[in-house]
């Protein structure tokens, strides 16, 4: 699908301290001296790999075999590596950056800066079962992005991933003053457009706030009083024209497709000139995604622009009222059903039927274990706890490592 890029310098990981999380404790493995016979040592290694069932592991399923979900192994002899099926292992080489040294992290996401004392949540790396996610040399990534335009489109979860990528890239920039928001804006959740320019490398990383992807506005005339606004499911957001001339597009949506953000605020669905008061949220979401897919197929030149869609990010609220939030000290061993999402399933189904290449970043299952990595009470003075958004550094950094793996290495990951 994408042109193969040059290989990148990857940090050797055999000498890292690693551990697997199993309920209810973290077990640390210690590597002893190698056996005298290399062959016997190899068999022992394979044996322990097979029985290491204590890992936190995610299996999104095996029926989404379209491009962007399965990743071919380097030599092609073992089949495919599903990068989203794996486990979280402890890795002391993380985090990738210091949020307090990155001016593009929202204060509300800087959990350490807001008083969080424990640091274990920063030390987890995602390990696919049959391959490795490359650790990229930041300088090489910056060079590959030279002259490019990377665009994120979506809700606050997309903005968090945007902030994460910028902070990671800034670690490789000597002249920090040469990295700036193009309009001089501070990073806030209300601005519809934010763009950060890396002047030394002549590229931008941009964010467009479009929480539904389709148009949100006034409804037709003569509607019931409870209808204050509508989502026009057959029309993409009116700022979509700004997304066209980009080299990379990363979409997400889902967090706002709930009754509290829709019906309880007087927002209902509209198709053409017709108000659809009885339409369910899942049905409306599917129509909106079909509208997005049609726009991609007819408007975006995928020979130039790499298109990604990141799936739904699970929350870890203690109840449906979103008033109880218990941030754990370690990842969960049981996702309690949060590893599946109707929104994610819809995204996978829509992309599978598209006529142009789109890569799905299926992060739902892997993120479902990370009840330890939410903002919780470590926000910027908010009166309520937060079990939806993520601390930075944290889980969005791993999303970006996977994103870069797809974007820069033509979906190929090194086998171990």
Automatic annotation (TrEMBL):
Source organism per UniProt: Vitis vinifera
Origin: domain of life: Eukaryota
Domain Trichome birefringence-like N-terminal per the UniProt entry, residue ranges: 81-132
A Pfam entry, by short name: PMR5N
Family: Belongs to the PC-esterase family. TBL subfamily.
Protein name listed in UniProt: Trichome birefringence-like N-terminal domain-containing protein
Main location: membrane
Ranges for domain Trichome birefringence-like C-terminal: 133-405
UniProt-annotated location(s): Membrane
Keywords, sorted A to Z: Membrane, Signal-anchor, Transmembrane, Transmembrane helix
Membrane topology, from the record: Single-pass membrane protein
């Amino acid at each position: 699908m994408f042109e193969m890029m040059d290989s990148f310098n990857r940090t050797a990981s055999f000498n890292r301290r690693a551990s697997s999380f199993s309920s209810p404790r973290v077990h640390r493995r210690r590597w002893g001296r190698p056996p005298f016979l290399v062959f016997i040592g190899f068999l022992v290694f394979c044996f322990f790999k097979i029985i290491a069932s204590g890992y936190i592991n995610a299996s999104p399923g095996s029926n989404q075999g379209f491009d962007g979900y399965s990743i071919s192994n380097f030599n092609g002899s073992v089949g495919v590596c599903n990068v989203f099926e794996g486990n979280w292992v402890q890795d002391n080489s993380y985090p990738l950056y210091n949020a307090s040294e990155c001016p593009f992290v929202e204060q509300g996401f800087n959990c350490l800066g807001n008083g969080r004392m424990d640091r274990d949540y920063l030390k987890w790396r995602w390990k696919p079962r049959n391959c490795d996610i490359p650790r990229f040399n930041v300088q090489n990534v910056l060079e590959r992005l030279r002259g490019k335009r990377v665009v994120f489109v979506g809700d606050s979860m997309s903005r968090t991933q945007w902030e994460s990528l910028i902070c990671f890239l800034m670690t490789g920039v000597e002249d920090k003053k040469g990295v700036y928001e193009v309009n001089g804006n501070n990073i806030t959740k209300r601005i519809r457009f934010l763009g950060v320019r890396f002047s030394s490398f002549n590229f931008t990383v941009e964010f467009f706030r479009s929480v539904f992807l389709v148009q949100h506005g006034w409804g037709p005339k003569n509607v019931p009083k409870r209808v204050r606004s509508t989502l026009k499911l057959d029309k993409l957001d009116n700022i979509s024209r700004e997304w066209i001339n980009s080299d990379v597009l990363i979409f997400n949506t889902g967090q706002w497709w709930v009754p509290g953000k829709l019906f309880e605020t007087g927002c209902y669905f509209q198709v053409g000139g017709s108000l659809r008061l009885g339409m369910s949220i899942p049905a409306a979401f599917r129509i909106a995604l079909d509208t997005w897919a049609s726009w991609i197929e007819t408007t975006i030149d995928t020979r130039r622009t790499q298109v990604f869609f990141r799936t739904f990010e699970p929350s870890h609220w203690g109840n449906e009222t979103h008033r109880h939030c218990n941030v754990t000290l370690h990842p969960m061993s049981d996702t309690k059903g949060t590893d599946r999402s109707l929104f994610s399933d819809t995204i996978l189904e829509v992309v599978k039927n598209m006529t142009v290449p789109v890569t799905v970043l299926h992060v739902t299952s892997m993120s479902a274990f990370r009840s330890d990595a939410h903002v919780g009470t470590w926000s910027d003075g908010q009166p309520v706890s937060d079990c939806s958004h993520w601390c930075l550094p944290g889980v969005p950094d791993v999303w970006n490592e996977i994103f870069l793996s797809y974007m820069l290495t033509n979906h190929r990951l090194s086998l171990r």
